[in-house]
Amino acid sequence: MDSEKAKKAAELAELELQQEEEQKQIDLIKRAIKQTLENIKQKEKDRDKLNKEIKTLKQDIDNIRAGRLDLIAERQEKDDEAKRTSVIEVVKEKEIHHHHYYDRWYEPYKIIWNEPIVYSPSITWTGCNSTTYDASSECVTTWTNSAVKDASVGTYLLNSGDCITLT
Known about the structure:
This protein has a domain at 51-166. It is of the alpha+beta class. Mean pLDDT is 80; it is low at 121-137. A 4-stranded antiparallel β-sheet has the order 1-2-4-3. A two-stranded antiparallel ribbon has the order 5-6. Strand 3 (132-133) and strand 4 form a beta hairpin. Helices cover 52% and strands 16% of the residues.
């Protein structure tokens, strides 16, 4: 009988070792799934942030094309994240009284570049001709809504090699 007890004890010990090994594998898989879920959650947060930034940048382009610097300035006043995301910062200049009554097309806005201006030997960029330009590559210009609307049309060659035409 002792041999049967020893045999049963050996079988139980083997079963326990097998169960412990299975439990270790299960725990490992659960940790991997938990880490994967945490990575997914972080990537979704990153994606949401990037989608918001892309939306802001597209709104900037649409507003510039429509000659609506006032909308960019308003968005940047209300949302600091929009101000940080935009390539330019738009600030309404002090009121200037013209010979005509109020017309948003003639309101002056100061445009401040938030990112360094990249100059290419094959492209001549003349946006800083009548502005201040310093060693930090910051370009500050004053534009009106009507001037911006007309200036946005053209074909743009991006650093990636893509061409985008705005009409």
